[in-house]
Structures are given as C-alpha cells and as structure tokens.
Design brief:
Strand content: 15-25%
Distance between the termini: 71 Å
Shape: globular
Number of strands: 10
C-alpha cells in the first residue's frame, strides 16, 4: 500500500496562522520535504515537531522527487512545505504533484495561509475574476512582453515581487497598463503589514526603497458591454413571467448573453434612466 503526499501550508509571517491539523500532520509523517531546511527547522522547533527533514528546492527537485516517490511507493507518508504559504505555488512542489499523480499516489492538501488570496480579499479590487501571475520575468525585455500579454485580461492581476525589483516592475507596468487601480500588500500578517492603494502611475512614482515582501494587485482591463441584437429588458421580463425572482432573472439573462450580471444590471439601469 502506497503512502500519502501531504501538501502542507505554513504561516506567511504570523506563527499563529499555523493550523492544528498542519501541526498534527507534520508530526505524523515519516519525513518533511522543505524548501529551506534551516528556516523550516525553526518553525518545527517552535511547535515541538521532531520529524526528519530533507531539502527539496528548485536546485535539487528532480533527484529528490524520485527519492520521495520511492518512499511513497514503499508506504511512507511525506509532507511538502515551502518557506511560507502553500507549497506548489511558485514552488518546485508542483512537479512532485504531477509525478505523484502519474504514479497513482494519494495527494492530500493541508490548507492554510496564502499571500495572494490574503492580499486579494483586502484589496477592494474585483474578487470574482482574478489571475495569479506570480513572479514576472527578471529581464526587462521579457518582462515587458509578459506584461503586454496581460494587458487585455479582464480580471484582477496578482503578482509577487521582490523589494529590490519592485520600483522597476511598477514603472514598466505603468507604461503598459496606465492609470489602473493598484494595491501593494506588504509584509502580510507581520508586525509592519501595510496596504498601499492608488493608481499604478502614482504608486510607481511614490515607491523609492521598499522593504519587505510584496504582493502587487492590478485592476484588470475593463470589459466593454456590447448591446446584443435581442433586447435585454425583454429577456429579463420573460424570465420574470416564468416565475423567477429579479436576481435569478438577471443571472439567467447574463448567461444567455455571456456577460456578467453586473453588466445586465447596468444596462437595465441605463434603459430605465432613458424612460
């Protein structure tokens, strides 16, 4: 019988965000595969966890992945952790997950802290549609091409960026995206947690020598509503006549025209204003 591969979230700053389940699993598994064993050892020591550690980062992931697979196939259970947050997000754990799937190994998530989603829910930007982008390319040429491909995405864009590259990233993003609403989430869950809000150009000019880890959230490209040939208000009325409430009628109309319910609401509002 094969073992289980656990993908275990760790705190992104505040140790109180460690879950009871994560602590139990890290105590019970046969081995913990960690991105940085020295950093993870401090976490384990804090919670009195004495499970053996092995190094598992991008420089040794292929060789270690095979060894982890062998242990799993022999019936051992392995927990994978990143330095902070969820493993397999901008992390070599993703390759191990695919290897485990290919070999019919059971995979179990141990949820917990995540910087991208923590920043998103506090951003005030659109949370119904978002795209996690991760780190942009390091070279200026590749970075600009990368940003240009994202310019037409109609969803909140979520980036990770190192402090020493943040100013250049914001300046180049401002050239591509213009005055879009932007939020910089710094040092999430830590003592100096901070949210900086404004349009992208303003923030690019304001940032000088930032400190700490950043999540950058940029407003997506606004979609332009194109009025369909069939009258929207008539379709909504038909759904109401079928017994649907107004909210459901608008939802079904939005599905028919492949647009958001907010766009249907705005169109109905515009029509009522003309009457």
């Amino acid at each position: 019988m094969t073992g289980t591969l656990y993908l275990c979230a760790t705190p992104i700053g505040n140790l109180e965000d460690m879950t009871f389940r994560a602590i139990r699993i890290l105590r019970e598994v046969n081995v913990i595969a960690a991105e940085d064993t020295r950093r993870t050892r401090k976490l384990l020591t804090h919670f009195e966890i004495h499970t053996p550690l092995i190094r598992f980062d991008e420089n040794c992931s292929a060789a270690v992945s095979e060894k982890i697979l062998q242990r799993l196939q022999a019936g051992e259970s392995v927990a994978v952790v990143s330095d902070a947050g969820l493993p397999a997000i901008s992390d070599p754990g993703a390759d191990l997950v695919r290897l485990a799937i290919d070999n019919d190994i059971k995979i179990c998530p141990i949820p917990g802290a995540n910087a991208a989603l923590s920043a998103l829910i506090c951003s005030g930007l659109n949370t119904s549609k978002f795209l996690f982008v991760g780190f942009a390319p390091k070279s200026k040429k590749n970075r600009r091409e990368f940003l240009q491909r994202l310019a037409t995405v109609n969803a909140t864009l979520i980036f990770y960026e190192a402090p020493h590259r943040l100013k250049n990233f914001l300046s180049e993003a401002a050239e591509v995206f213009g005055e879009r609403q932007t939020v910089l989430a710094r040092e999430l869950t830590k003592v100096h947690e901070e949210f900086l809000r404004g349009n992208l150009i303003e923030l690019a000019e304001k940032i000088s020598e930032p400190l700490g880890e950043f999540v950058v959230l940029i407003e997506g490209q606004a979609s332009e509503f194109v009025a369909p040939a069939e009258d929207i208000s008539t379709v909504v009325e038909k759904f109401l006549e079928q017994g649907l409430d107004k909210k459901s009628a608008m939802r079904e109309t939005a599905k028919r025209f492949n647009v958001s319910r907010r766009e249907i609401y705005n169109e109905l509002l515009a029509v009522s204003c003309k009457l």
